[in-house]
Amino acid sequence: MKIATWNVNSLSVRLPQVLDWLHAQSPDVLALQETKLTDDRFPHADLLAAGYHSVWLGQPTYNGVALLSREPAQQVQRGIPGLDDPQARVIAATFGEIRVIGAYFPNGQAPGSDKFAYKMQWLDALQAWLAKELAQDAKVALVGDFNIAPEDRDVYDPVAWEGQIHCTPEERAHFRSLLDLGMFDAFRAFEQPPKSWSWWDYRNLAFRKNQGLRIDHILLSESLRASLRQCFIDKAPRKNERPSDHAPVVAELET
DNA sequence: ATGACATTGGTACAATGA
Q1: What is the C-alpha separation between A248 and A7, in angstroms, rounded?
Q2: A2-253: which CATH number, 3.60.10.10, 1.10.150.20, 3.20.20.140, 3.30.420.140?
Q3: Cα A159 vs. chain centroid, distance in angstroms?
Q4: C-alpha A194 chain-centroid distance
Q5: So where are chain A's domains?
Q6: Which SS3 state, helix, strand or coil, does residue A82 take?
Q7: pLDDT one-digit tens code per residue, A148-193
Q8: Residue A255: is its pLDDT beyond 90?
Q9: Which segment of the chain is annotated as a signal peptide (predicted)?
């Protein structure tokens, strides 16, 4: 079971790259963020022709999430239950024994802003829901664009980024709280190359200089630890002529 | 340097991202 996540920054622009990548990596489940599509424009027929079922939650212009899968999704949940959120950020479904939650965490803009307050509220709601999901389903994967760099080693210039958005103590405390519910960071379960990022700014030749952040994550419930075989960031799609600013993260589980 | 670059909606440039 190969589970992946990728912020594509517009699925209409990136669809050819997504189709290429599905062919190259053959994930069983791929969570997408920032589809930036209304539900009526979701390219489900193209994806089905490539061998993937889709479930999605969209809105005009911003946000938008989807789960693509070899097998059809079961028990689909759109949005965080009980959270009245006009922003399309969450879609969850069950694949075999595994509950997969695909999420596009709020950016938060800057500490002290209204958007930061929204991010904190949203994180509270996610945490409460994840606790319930873990009580119901033994095997849970929380994947997506977290917009949180959990530690200084996840930041190309931790001094410059200290206290900045994605790196604030409040965001990092929320990340640890998710782990404390009984999850672990699949990427950090293995030795990884230093300076591993999942996002590079479009500006300033950041990708060429490898100046980035690791903000896209795959968290797995402890019940899945023994079956995790590998976890990696695939930088290949970031080398495209017209790439997303994010690279996919992949976790491979036995069976 | 409220900058750079990319995307959407709409057809000029503001909002948003991270």
Answers
A1: 7
A2: 3.60.10.10
A3: 25
A4: 21
A5: 2-253
A6: coil
A7: 999 999 999 999 999 999 999 999 999 999 999 999 999 999 999 9
A8: no
A9: none
Our answer to whether residue A104 is catalytic in this structure is yes
Strand B: residues with CB below 7 A = A 7, 9-10, 12-13, 34, 36, 38, 60-62, 106-107, 109, 115, 145, 147, 165-166, 199, 201-204, 213, 215, 242, 245-246
Distance of alpha carbon A125 from alpha carbon A81, whole angstroms: 9
Strand order in the sheet with A98-104: A74-78, A90-95, A98-104, A140-145, A216-221, A183-185
Rg over alpha carbons for chain A, rounded to the nearest Å, is 17
Q: What is the pLDDT of residues A66-109, one digit of tens each?
A: 999 999 999 999 999 999 999 999 999 999 999 999 999 999 99
